[in-house]
Specification:
Number of helices: 4
Shape: elongated
Strand content: 15-25%
Strand order of the largest sheet: 1-2-4-3
Number of domains: 2
Helix content: 55-70%
CATH architecture of the largest domain: 2-Layer Sandwich
Oligomer: single chain
Number of strands: 4
Structural class: alpha+beta
Mean pLDDT: 87
CATH class of the largest domain: Alpha Beta
Low-confidence stretches: none
CATH topology of the largest domain: Gyrase A, domain 2
C-alpha cells in the first residue's frame, strides 16, 4: 500500500503549460502592436511638424505680400483691384437665371415691379423685390411658392402697402436669399 494516494496532475500540468504558451503568444502580439503603433505615431508627428513648418512658411510669405500691397505707392493698385473684383462679382449674377427661376414661382396674377440683387460677404446673392397684385391672396401664394422652392430661402417681408387712388395694387417689398452660384 502506498503512503501517498494516486493523483491525476498530468492533465492539469498540460493545461497550465498550454495556457502559459497562449499568454506568452498574446503578450508577444501585444508588444508588436504597441511597437507598430509607436512607429505610426512617430510618422504622424513627423508629418504634422512638416505641415506646421509649411504653414509657417506660407504665412510668412503672405505677410510679406500683404506688406508690399499695403505700401503707399501700391495703395491705388490695391484699391483698383478691390473695385474690379467687386465689379466682376456683381457681373457674375445672371439676370437670365434669376428671371427663369422667378418664372417658376411667381403666380400669373403677381407682378414683379422691381428687383435689386446684392452680394454679401459670404458671396451669397440676396434679392430685394417689390411685387404687386390686385388682392393679397396672390401675394400670399407668392410667399408660399418662394418658401417651397429650393432656390429661394428666408423671405423677409419689409413693407406692405395697401392700394391707393393713384395705384390700385397691393404692394409688398420682400427680401429673399437666392441660391445662385457665382
Amino acid at each position: 500500500m502506498a503512503s501517498q494516494p494516486f493523483r491525476r496532475d498530468r492533465a492539469m500540468l498540460v493545461a497550465s503549460i498550454a495556457v502559459s504558451i497562449l499568454l506568452c503568444g498574446t503578450l508577444a502580439f501585444m508588444i508588436s502592436l504597441a511597437r507598430a503603433d509607436n512607429a505610426q505615431l512617430a510618422d504622424l508627428r513627423h508629418e504634422v511638424s512638416r505641415l506646421n513648418a509649411e504653414k509657417r512658411k506660407v504665412t510668412a510669405e503672405q505677410l510679406q505680400l500683404d506688406a508690399v500691397l499695403r505700401k503707399p505707392q501700391n495703395a491705388e493698385v490695391l484699391e483698383q483691384s478691390v473695385f474690379l473684383n467687386t465689379l466682376l462679382l456683381r457681373k457674375g449674377i445672371s439676370w437670365t437665371r434669376i428671371f427663369a427661376d422667378l418664372e417658376k414661382v411667381v403666380p400669373y396674377n403677381v407682378r414683379v415691379i422691381q428687383i435689386r440683387p446684392s452680394v454679401n460677404a459670404q458671396d451669397q446673392v440676396s434679392l430685394d423685390m417689390l411685387v404687386g397684385a390686385d388682392s393679397m391672396t396672390p401675394v400670399i401664394d407668392f410667399f408660399k411658392a418662394l418658401q417651397g422652392n429650393s432656390m429661394f430661402s428666408y423671405s423677409d417681408v419689409k413693407v406692405l402697402q395697401p392700394p391707393s387712388q393713384a395705384d390700385p395694387f397691393y404692394k409688398c417689398r420682400v427680401s429673399v436669399d437666392y441660391a445662385q452660384r457665382l
